[in-house]
Design goal:
The complex is a heterotrimer of chains A (354), B (68) and C (248). Chain A has 354 residues and is an alpha/beta fold. In chain A, 42% of the residues lie in helices and 21% in strands. The mean pLDDT of chain A is 97. Chain C is an alpha/beta fold and 248 residues long. Classes of the chains: A alpha/beta (354), B alpha+beta (68), C alpha/beta (248).
Chain lengths: 354, 68, 248
């Protein structure tokens, strides 16, 4: 049994977090994601949780750091300029190996930019953003239903790996309404947290949650441990959707909102007699390089077309995976504009030469 | 009868205890070096100690314990 | 003979790394003693951000969380919201609390966050070797005010206790010093009162503690105490700025 309701993407994220056992939320208002915070302000009261409106995004992420250190399932949400401010906290969370969920409902930049949807934060999300050698798991939902599924999954992954998990949405996903089916109960994978601070109760040695290591060997040991963990994540939790790639001539690579638009184009191309498939990364980190490498090795595949709401960011990862075997074309829009189906079809016809 | 005990190896020779002792019986042992390389503080005429704890209160390094 | 002064079990055995005569050690001891005397050592969670005391998590025998520069009040907020019945404190220097972390301390106070901030004010950045702090006195020489702090160029010192005392959520604010037996005793009482205010969930509490930095002041430890009394206390008078009439 499940309940099916029509809800706005941002509110679904908030509801999903609560269903996943999140009882502590810290945020700062910013368009186009503030509905998450508004929803939390009302809903946390029902479930005996806390919603704190922080004085800044920096404070909010540090509250997340504290609550995670204290053993709680915790979340903050923001949009691009706010996420830039949170990078300090991301790096500390990685260094201290704390589980936390962060949502970025991306808007267009750079600078204050605008409030319309974009995917210009791909580099920042997947390559770091803060200082030091670290990775965050980055999930890229493409529907309101997936916002729900992946938000729940984000909490489980965060606890499993003691990592920050980011949900990289955009203004379109956050603001749109779609039906969502909720399960009656969530599969909450509770894990022991023998590292969290809760007071010694005079029964054990005192504990510290820290990211500072003055001894170079200690710090290198931490870095080695983090890298080993990241290799495990790559192996166990890379997620990708493949659509019609078997005998495709052109393969589109796209995530999130740009993948929604691209999905509609596959059938239109078929009508024109051009066989087009799509590889949609669901995890942007770890990036599904193997799926792309395999496609690049297939004889039927003549070229790739990467479609993004930016000037070409995931494009670099696609090119690394294709590794020169096939040409990789690009179609991107910026400033809050979306590529139209017509633009994409025109591009496909140009590439296919018919 | 009172007595103070100095944990020599914790001492950094800052002399704050020397400065507050009302009996002026604390001094640095110039003939000694501790593990840290400081001349540690100590008491020469213990029989004059009143156990007032001034030295222990001002010591930033938890060097001193007081008996009374 | 009875032992009338012993090392507190609120501190670990690890010797402090602080410079000779630095009074951070006294402040650490007082906080640790109070936690033991109030029997809250096993419940308390401390937060140590960046500064000379960055690694005091190795000294306090309670659970500790290391935080980014200036962010301790936000980190403490997160901890306190998860463990509302346990004492949570921050230990911050003047650069940390009054420069980079100004927003965090003011808003923790404004929310009436039930945490306690211990604010060690020594009028200088110690760890980075003696730069001008927000609390550096006019005329005071530092590596970044080498001709003495000039109000026309470097502005004025911030009196944090007086400033926070204007906020309703800050229910107990006192400035103390650790320069002699009497003041050290008063400092300890203030620390205990701050913890009691927190235990009774009355709101935010802060104890500002005037402290010395002999190394970066360029003075010997005894002369440093005199400078604290003569110069610092003139700018930063001791006293209770809020919550003097609180019976806790």
């Amino acid at each position: 049994m499940s309940s099916r309701v029509l809800m706005k993407g941002n509110e679904v994220i908030a509801e999903a977090a609560i269903r996943a056992g999140c009882r502590h939320y810290f945020g700062y208002p910013i368009t186009p994601q503030t509905e998450i915070m508004n929803y939390m302000a009302r809903r946390m009261k029902d479930v005996d949780g806390t919603m704190v409106q922080a004085e800044s995004e920096i404070a909010a992420i540090n509250m997340v750091y504290g609550a995670a250190a204290a053993g709680a399932r915790v979340m903050t949400t923001s949009s691009s300029p706010g996420i830039s401010l949170k990078q300090e906290g991301f790096s500390y969370i990685a260094g201290a190996e704390l589980p936390a969920v962060v949502v970025n409902i991306v808007r267009c930049g750079p600078g204050l930019g605008g409030i319309l949807p974009a995917q210009g934060d791909y580099f920042q999300a997947t390559k770091g953003g803060g200082h030091g050698d670290y990775k965050n798991i980055v999930l890229a939902p493409a529907s309101v239903q997936e916002l729900y599924e992946l938000t729940v999954e984000a909490f489980n992954l965060a606890d499993k790996y003691r990592m920050l998990v980011m949900i990289l949405g955009d203004g379109t996903l956050g603001q749109m309404m779609e039906p969502v089916s909720y399960r009656d109960a969530e599969q909450i994978e509770t894990v022991e947290k023998p590292w969290h601070v809760c007071g010694t109760k005079d029964k054990r040695q005192h504990r510290t949650v820290q990211s500072i290591y003055i001894d170079p060997d200690d710090l290198e040991a931490l870095n080695d441990k983090l890298q080993a963990k990241y290799r495990t994540v790559e192996k166990q939790d890379t997620m990708v959707e493949m659509i019609g790639c078997e005998d495709a001539e052109i393969i589109i690579t796209a995530f999130g909102t740009s993948s929604r638009i691209s999905r509609n184009v596959l059938r239109l191309a078929d009508d024109l007699g051009i066989k087009v498939g799509m590889i949609r990364p669901i995890t942007l980190w770890p990036f599904p390089s193997e799926a792309i490498m395999e496609a690049a090795a297939a004889d039927s595949v003549k070229s790739f077309l990467d479609i993004e709401l930016n000037a070409g960011q995931m494009l670099e990862d696609v090119r690394l995976a294709v590794n020169g075997r096939k040409p990789v074309h690009f179609l991107g829009r910026t400033g809050g504009n979306l590529p139209t189906q017509k633009e994409i079809i025109e591009k496909i016809r140009t590439i296919a030469g018919r | 009868m009172s007595r103070v005990e100095f944990d020599d190896d914790r001492c950094k020779g800052c002399c704050l205890c020397v400065s507050v002792c009302p009996k002026k019986i604390i001094a640095l042992h110039k003939d000694k070096l501790n593990q840290k390389g400081f001349h540690p503080a100590g008491v020469e005429e213990m029989d004059k100690c009143t156990g007032c704890r001034f030295c222990a209160f001002i010591c930033p390094d938890n060097v001193i314990e007081v008996y009374k | 003979m009875k032992k009338v002064f012993a090392r507190t079990r609120g501190l670990t055995d690890k010797p402090f790394h602080y410079c000779p005569g630095c009074t951070h050690g006294i402040i650490h001891r007082l906080i640790a003693e109070v936690m033991c005397e109030m029997d809250i050592l096993g419940e308390t969670i401390g937060v140590s951000p960046v500064g000379c005391t960055y690694n005091n998590y190795e000294y306090f025998a309670c659970d500790m969380v290391q935080a980014a520069h200036g962010r301790a009040p936000a980190v403490a907020t997160g901890i306190k919201r998860v463990h509302p019945d346990q004492p949570v404190f921050t230990y911050q220097g003047d650069g940390d609390l009054a420069a980079i972390g100004t927003a965090e301390i003011i808003h923790a106070a404004a929310r009436g966050e039930k945490i306690t901030a211990f604010f060690a004010n020594n009028a200088i950045y110690g760890m980075t070797s003696g730069q001008m702090a927000p609390t550096t006195l006019l005329g005071q020489v530092t590596t970044t005010s080498p001709f003495g702090r000039d109000a026309a160029v470097e502005g004025y010192p911030i009196n944090v206790s007086e400033m926070l005392a204007t906020i309703r959520g800050a229910v107990y604010i006192e400035r103390v010093a650790v320069n002699n037996f009497k003041e050290i005793s008063k400092a300890k009482k203030a620390i205990a009162k701050a913890f009691r205010v927190q235990q009774q969930k009355l709101g935010f509490s802060m104890v500002e503690i005037l402290s010395t930095c002999p190394t970066n002041w360029g003075k010997d430890p005894v002369a440093s105490l005199r400078w604290l009394e003569d110069e610092m206390m003139a700018q930063y008078p001791l006293g209770v700025f809020r919550g003097g009439d609180l019976e806790v």
